[in-house]
Design a protein that fits this description.
The structure is a single chain. By secondary structure, the protein is mainly beta. It folds into 2 domains: 18-332, Tachylectin-2, Chain A; 340-528, Sandwich (Jelly Rolls), CATH 2.60.120. Helices cover 3% and strands 47% of the residues. The protein contains 3 helices and 38 strands. It is globular, with a radius of gyration of 23 Å. The two termini are 27 Å apart. 50% of the residues are buried. The structure holds 2,5-dideoxy-2,5-imino-D-mannitol. 2,5-dideoxy-2,5-imino-D-mannitol is lined by residues 21-22, 38, 50, 82-83, 99, 147-148, 202-203, 275-276. 2,5-dideoxy-2,5-imino-D-mannitol binds at residues 21-22, 38, 50, 82-83, 99, 147-148, 202-203, 275-276.
Length: 543
């Protein structure tokens, strides 16, 4: 990796060099967290010869890089080892199922097991002699669109179930298989979950969420105190969508509360860059944790020059929103707070319309900020908006400039002269029957550099007219900004490549471009220390 790397992250996971995409097989096993990831060991670009990179951690923040866990070696995975998941079997042993791109470029499912269970890091993995254990059948999937097995869940009948992403015609599907021994799998010919006109479905995830509280539950839990979440990634849209609903295990069906519409009404984990995500149950802390791939927005040429591409999100704890019961809440895992150092705060300060205030005294390129805004009276001030046919992402491209209640929010990775900044903002509207907020992350002025993807992201959320507050948390790390609005009910991640606002030349501001005042009831901003992410021999880590 060349020197002078203003965009490399300090606490978001990256491999030492080269290409990374999907998180694979995350799990907790005997005191150690494992992260595998799609990795091209030979280039900063995607290509053939993809392997499973492997790193381990005691806290999901500091990471030890190990040798690749799974590499192409057999006819059934000779072109590439693509995404998959880990399952902890009933005897406590972990097993991985991954997609092999075989010598015909067909997608087949393979198993790998730890070679030595007494190695706490599970460094070596052996491929099962029965591989491939699942091959595509014409009736359900195209041979080159059949991939990404989920973590398995164990039914009351003693059988394991997995789902696999697929495409048939233009239908995106997840196909269910059952097995008693994890080796012999039986196809359920009726897709578990399917959507018309979406193209291939990638990296499906299926898990229960508790109906009360923030704790997670094991993937196999079926009871009256859980609802279920199905997540699918559509390559065509490059987004991860989730559906909350009811799992009818007897019929082996999932009934989602809402259908996929292809509009802004669909629920997404993240309205910015966040794809091929995967969750796992962390039984050490009884929580469900979600990882997602946050890809680059610079050019392939830039990636080759900097010698790497792709970062992972900060792992997020995920649970069911107990207000609505039909959507999820995501929050950066608590361990990230151990990296917080020097802090500054603002309490009860009025931000009049058109004003801007610097959040000074912290390292603005490597920071964690939490802010609670108090809104003015809504009835008289909120602008009217007819929601029909409005695309919040498009609205964010224009609405970020000026309004009545908002836009207000943060200017992150900003240059002193403000020519560069990424605005994470809110604006409040009145619709026929409620107040809605618009959350935006506007990258259009994030850099003086051209040749970058500066798409603006945005989403709507409901504003509680009794509370009259909006909260925001942003994690800033050189070239990534992960923002959590409304306590994690709406999330937007972006990648930015400022030319001026790098390292100590980056600044952070709070702004209000609306005409009414908002109050910063409290703001806390912290410098974030660098996480230890490296090879064991160079680390102070104890094994
Ligand atoms: N990435 C993997 C596939 C998956 C896609 C290949 C999603 O298994 O469908 O690297 O980003």
């Amino acid at each position: 990796v060349p020197e002078n790397q203003p965009y490399r992250t300090s606490y978001h996971f990256q491999p030492p060099q080269n290409w990374m995409n999907d998180p694979n097989g995350p799990m907790y096993y005997k005191g150690v967290y494992h992260l595998f990831y799609q990795h091209n060991p030979n280039a900063a670009t995607f290509g053939d010869g993809i392997v499973w990179g492997h790193s381990v951690s005691y806290d999901l923040i500091n990471w030890i890089h190990l040798n690749n866990a799974i590499e192409p070696s057999e006819s059934y995975d000779i072109i590439s080892c693509w995404s998959g998941s880990a399952t902890i079997l009933l005897d406590g042993k972990p097993i991985i199922m991954y997609t092999g791109i075989d010598h015909n470029r067909h997608q087949v499912q393979n198993l790998a097991m730890p070679k030595n269970l007494s190695d706490p890091f599970l460094r070596e993995w052996v491929k099962h002699t029965h591989n491939p254990v699942i091959t595509p059948t014409d009736e359900v999937a195209e041979v080159d669109n059949f991939r990404d097995p989920s973590t398995a869940w164990h039914g009351k009948d003693g059988k394991w179930r997995i789902i696999i992403g697929a495409q048939k015609g233009d239908e995106g599907r997840t196909i269910l298989y059952q097995s008693e021994d994890f080796v012999n799998w039986k196809l359920d010919p009726i897709p578990f979950y399917a959507t018309d006109n979406t193209g291939v479905c990638e990296c499906p995830d299926f898990y229960p969420v508790s109906i009360n509280g923030t704790n997670g539950v094991d993937t196999s839990v079926e009871s009256l105190s859980v609802r279920h979440v199905a997540k699918v990634g559509y390559l065509r849209m490059a987004h991860d969508y989730y559906f909350v609903g009811k799992y009818l295990s007897d019929e082996e069906r999932f009934i989602a509360d809402a259908k996929f519409t292809g509009t802004c009404l669909d629920l997404r984990y993240d309205y910015g860059k966040f794809y091929a995500s995967k969750s796992f149950f962390d039984y050490a802390k009884n929580r469900r944790i979600l990882w997602g791939w946050v890809n680059e927005s610079d050019s392939e040429r830039d990636d080759i020059q900097k010698g790497w591409a792709g970062v992972q999100s900060i792992p997020r704890q995920v649970w069911l929103d107990n207000k609505s019961m039909n959507r999820l809440v995501q929050w950066p895992i608590e361990e990230v707070e151990n990296l917080r150092s020097k802090n500054m705060s603002i309490n009860g300060e009025k931000l009049v319309g058109g004003s801007i205030l610097e959040v000074s005294g912290i390292t603005a390129s490597q920071a964690d900020i939490e802010v609670l805004f108090e809104l003015p009276e809504l009835e008289d001030n909120a602008e009217s908006l007819d929601l029909s046919g409005v695309d919040p992402q498009l609205l964010c491209s224009n609405a970020a400039r000026s309004g009545i209640i908002g836009p207000f929010g943060l200017l992150a990775l900003a240059s002193k002269d403000l020519r560069e900044h990424t605005a994470i903002s809110f604006r409040v509207y009145k619709t026929s029957n409620k107040y809605v907020g618009l959350m935006c992350s506007d990258q259009s002025r994030s850099s003086l550099r051209s040749d970058l993807d500066k798409t603006t992201y945005g989403t709507f959320f409901d504003v509680d007219s009794n509370l009259r507050t909006i909260s925001l948390r942003s994690l800033i790390d050189h070239s990534i900004i992960e923002s959590f609005g409304e306590g994690g009910r709406v999330c937007i991640s972006s990648r930015v490549y400022p030319s001026l606002a790098t390292a100590s030349d980056a600044h952070l501001y709070v702004f209000n471009n609306g005409t009414t005042s908002v109050i910063i009831s409290k703001l806390n901003a912290w410098c974030i220390k660098e996480a230890e992410i490296g090879h064991l021999k160079n680390m102070s880590y104890k094994t």
